[in-house]
Design a protein that fits this description.
Helices cover 29% and strands 25% of the residues. By secondary structure, the chain is an alpha+beta fold. The chain has two domains: 186 residues, Fructose-1,6-Bisphosphatase, Chain A, domain 1 (2-Layer Sandwich); 130 residues, D-Maltodextrin-Binding Protein, domain 2. α1 runs antiparallel to α2 and α4 crosses α7. The chain is globular, with a radius of gyration of 19 Å.
Length: 333
């Protein structure tokens, strides 16, 4: 049996489509290497005093976990020295890291170094999300290089640390998944040309916030719970608390992930998830797999960011379900 490693696959895809610079190939492989190290630490977390809170609060107002800091420092430090990156935005940092111009490359990386870090202590799935953008113009990079609409992404992906470690990415030529084979220490192609299946099976939303939802969201969730064999309802409810894990299941098996705006926190009425670090990369992957992503009123990839930590509502998954949710929103106006 021939094993297709992630490095070989990326190189072959570049050649097939006439992309010969190799810089993006190497940058994706840099992220894969860092992911292997994070995966190792996740598996040893209970033995290495890396579980638990640091006692600090990040720029999002969230409690910082030790593994958050480890993943952020590893990824940002490794990429900053790669020679391929000019700026790095991170969910954990108030401002982007600007690489000195003499050492800078032509790409920008926005990161959620550890998605779902609240799952660490209970040994549930967590992940890393990344978005790769081209540098704007000449000269030294600025924060504006990070603040680009999602449609400008040249690549995006995530790594899920679960029962196995899976690396999923797209460069705009389809979505591919690779599973880390511990016997050879490489990510090996396991999911080729991922596409959403024919009908929806699952919906993923935090039902504990139901009392805080707006009317369109309530009516949509009532609809998915309705009994109608012709439309395969009711859908099954699955919610892990790590966007990577819920998104991954829904893309492979058919589903929709929702983190709509709610009125639970007056400071987060625009949504909880970060546009640059979570919404944009997942929207890019969803569209490449035949799905869609919306805030409820606009396509996520068309939004021009105004702030590094801008939040938006996110409904992402099967195109038919995203459109259905938007119809419920339109009907409420």
């Amino acid at each position: 049996m021939t094993l297709t490693t992630i490095e070989r696959h990326i190189v072959e895809e570049e050649r097939r489509h006439g992309l010969t610079s190799g810089t993006l190939t190497n940058l994706l492989y840099d992220i894969a290497v860092a992911a292997k190290v994070i995966s190792r630490e996740v598996r040893r977390a209970g033995l290495t005093n890396i579980i638990g809170s640091t006692g600090d609060v990040n720029v999002q107002g969230e409690t910082v976990q030790k593994l958050d800091i480890y993943a952020n420092d590893l990824l940002s430090g490794y990429l900053a020295k790669s020679g391929r990156v000019c700026a790095i935005g991170s969910e954990e940092l108030a401002k982007p890291i600007m690489v000195p111009e003499k050492q800078a490359g032509k790409y920008v990386v926005n990161l959620d170094p550890l998605d779902g870090s609240g799952n660490i202590a209970v040994n549930a799935s967590i992940g890393t999300i990344f978005s790769i953008l081209p540098k704007l113009g000449q000269g030294a990079a600025t924060e504006a290089d990070c603040l680009q609409p999602g449609r400008n992404q040249v690549a995006a992906g995530y790594v899920m640390y679960g029962s196995s470690t899976v690396f999923v990415y797209s460069t705009g030529l389809g979505v591919y998944g690779f599973t880390l084979d511990p016997t050879v220490g490489e990510f090996v192609l396991s999911h080729s040309r991922i596409r959403y299946p024919g009908h929806c099976k699952f919906y993923s939303i935090n039902e504990g916030y139901a009392s805080y939802w707006d009317e369109p969201t309530r009516r949509y969730i009532e609809w998915v719970k309705g009994i109608d064999p012709a439309s395969h309802r009711p859908y099954g409810h699955r919610y892990i608390g790590a966007m990577v894990a819920d998104f991954h299941r829904n893309m492979l098996e058919g589903g929709v992930f929702l983190y709509p705006r709610d009125n639970k926190d007056p400071q987060k009425t625009t949504g909880k998830l970060r546009l640059l670090f979570e919404a944009n990369p997942m929207a890019f992957l969803a569209e490449q797999a035949g799905g869609a992503a919306t805030t409820g009123t606009e396509r996520i990839l068309t939004i021009t960011p105004t702030d590094l930590h801008q939040r938006v509502p996110v409904i992402v998954g099967m195109a038919s379900e995203v459109e259905r949710y938007e119809n419920f929103v339109r009907q409420s106006h």
